[in-house]
Amino acid sequence: MGKPGRRPGRAGTREQILASARAAFAEHGFDQATVRAIAEGAGVDAAMVHHYFGDKQGLFMAVLQVPIDPEKLVNEITGGEVEEVPYRLVRSFLSVWDHPVSGPAAVAVLRSGLHGPLGARLVRDFLTTQILRRVASRLPLDRQEVQYRFSLCASQLVGLAVARYILKLQPLASAPAETVVPAISPTLRRYLLEPLDNGELEAK
Length: 204
Hints:
The protein is mainly alpha-helical. The chain has helices at residues 13-32, 35-42, 46-53, 56-64, 70-78, 85-98, 102-115, 117-137, 146-166, 177-193.
């Protein structure tokens, strides 16, 4: 007789792990969700999670189903002069959304974020933990201002995505990236690199 305990991998195990992870990330967020709790929710050993997805980040990206490599994207954004980061941030952002493969996936993720609080948390965590936090770690920013600055950046980028890819607001929707990037990047430059009058919104 086999030993009692977690059931071994079998057909449907990957989907069970994804379902458990989706619920955990939506309820607790990326930082607070644990591989152990996700595995328990799926009724498998934590080793099975690592077998299918590598680590928590890989599992998170599988839940979102966005075929991009966050590390590669962050390297593109931060690889060069700091003054050019806002320009590269917008350019890289548009390259994901305009791509024939990653673009539709990104639109699907954004739509889920607009339809309810659970999807919204997944989208917010993707922007903050997978992209903006990594970018911030490579920039000479005041730690007390990082969260405020990047929430401003996120508001600009999400607004751009909604207007260009969801609402398809013209002429923005059909404008080439070469036109959009220099139009948007000065705002990102102010949010990221220039002094801010935080007032009551100053990060604690």
